[in-house]
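Purpose: get a first structural picture of the assembly so the mutagenesis plan has something to point at.
Setup: two entries, given in the order below. No constraints added.
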Amino acid sequence: MGFSKDQLLSQLQELEIDYSKYEHPPVLTVEEQAKYVSSSEGALSKNLFFKDKKHRYYIISAMVDTKVDIKVLSQRLGLGKGGIRMAPEEALAELLQVSLGCVTPFAVVNESARDVSLLLDQKFKNQTRFIFHPLSNDVSISLSTSGLDKFLQSIGRDPVYVDLEANANPVVGKDQPPDLAVYVPSNSVVVPELPNKTPSAQAPPKNVSAEKTKPVASPKPSKSTGNVKSVVQNSGLSVFKNPDKFVEEILDKTSALLLSEVKGENVEALAETLRKRLTSEFTHLAVMYKNIAYSEGFYAGTQCQPKRQ
Amino acid sequence: MEVDKKEEIASESSEEQVVNPWEVSAKDGGKIDYDKLIDQFGCQRLDESLIDRVERLTSRQPHVFLRRGVFFAHRDFDLVLDAYERGDKFYLYTGRGPSSEALHLGHLIPFMFTKYLQEAFKVPLVIQLTDDEKCMWKNLSVEESQRLARENAKDIIACGFDVTKTFIFSDFDYVGGAFYKNMVKVAKCVTLNKAMGIFGFSGEDHIGKLSFPPVQAVPSFPSSFPHLFPGKDKLRCLIPCAIDQDPYFRMTRDVAPRLGYSKPALIESTFFPALQAKNGKMSASDPNSAIYVTDTAKDIKNKINRYAFSGGQDSIEKHREIGANLEVDIPVKYLSFFLEDDAELEHIKKEYGEGRMLTGEVKKRLTEVLTEMVERHRMARAAVTDEMVDAFMAVRPLPNMFE
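Result (structure tokens, whole complex):
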């Protein structure tokens, strides 16, 4: 069962963690939140929820003006460039049990999020107080780093602070292991993919995720085999349906081969340059290939004879 | 009602700059004043914060045209982004008036940008070929304008649109049914006087011209495409276009609420300057004012060397002393449109502006960039078959349009 904001707040009180609460209309973006909570109460945060290709999830909580470069982060985690991307909405609801616009470090209080890695911006330590949503985006609370740390420790987590802007051009290799790799979760999580939604259905009414009491908390092996298969099938298909995923797959394999066959300190840089320069070219080729295949199929369809009875 | 104070087209005077769908010229032989245009039209500047938002929402670097301010103005783009963040998607609508077979780089710009938008936001696209408009305005035969529409469609497809998310249509083929019903609804809301005020029509113009604006307006409404967006009447529309198309969509935005439809959003670009830098935009009627997609590498090199207006100084000594005039230099302007690498562009601007780099070098780099682009386009164009055009233009559902 997902933690509600009231349960969270009473937990904070029980732990004697000092916080200030601000209620406001539901907000979905930092810009909107800033209209209701002034920076004198604390530093606003931006909270991002990522997923990697092996279905491991990460919350990055940072100061609003800290630059979070997804590509750099991905490399520092040892996932190569483009190894992580924004997590889909379903994951938000299933794992963090919060709605859109509500990602917050506090979401890790849920059992369902126990394998989600939480990385906090080093710069928070310079602030006296900072601001998060306590599991609901119609409230914001401000508290100090020590308060947040105390809370995290109470649920068995070690608070992890990272300099998100350091190492802006990471060179990853045998002698220089990715510096954040240790924070990659050891377990991947299966989030059952929902069937294709129409745009109107995609607007997430907050009520839906709050009411969803489905215990996704621990995907037991027997239950998850079915899910794993469907996830694998879906992601397999999308590699062939989407030109950019297709090209990514090709470049992943090429880079991997290059890195394994050729030694030398310039090889990683070369692999990255290749990827950077070839992605757009290859995607263009892949789109043309897809268009031709579709057109041939389409034409064949127009010439198709009805089935003989 | 959308407020724009100066709806009348100042056609005769060279006192004011003229910007409308059929004429673009600057004031007194100078440059187009885009700030004044934004003010006059009543649209918004596309600022840094919006570009950052786009980067965040799409998890990729914003397109070079956004970074360099080529697409610089908008109407309601922020609302589209708000909705997108909430999970409400949108569709793209752009178009071309197929007046000639020869496309130049200026024509490709909205398509290059639209392709990026389609990929980055993963949304569907409708492309309108206004063969009827060209038939009327350029006095082409119906058959010729239809033929040109198909030819132009091939160049458009070569820009790299995904057939599973793109519907191309020509007015002569598609007008009718739900599309026509919306046209009539729009037409009922615009008086003759208003149309004359917005578009500069007069008593001498034939009635075909007067009845055209609704044709360009209704692709902004999802109900015009029942095979694509059944039941999605609230789906938003984003229109990337050059800013001279603004009058059509001011009218559309005015009419939309009265029909119970959402107002389409716009994202607008500056004009691509002519090689010789005469005021206004690249013109299809002067072959040396533009680089065409059919130009050979030799043609490109010649045109740039001979016709591209240079901001460099008359003599090398003077150039090394004062540096180039970047304001009027065409090669640097072109590079700012097409050179992807921000750092390299900055370097060139600095070195050239301070006199250490010569015009010849800048022109050489530009020739490389454009040749590569034109070559890539030519290759893609060669792969477009008539069957492919048929497929893109078939009235068919697009089941995976938001993936």
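Residues 28 and 100 of chain A are 7 Å apart (CA to CA).
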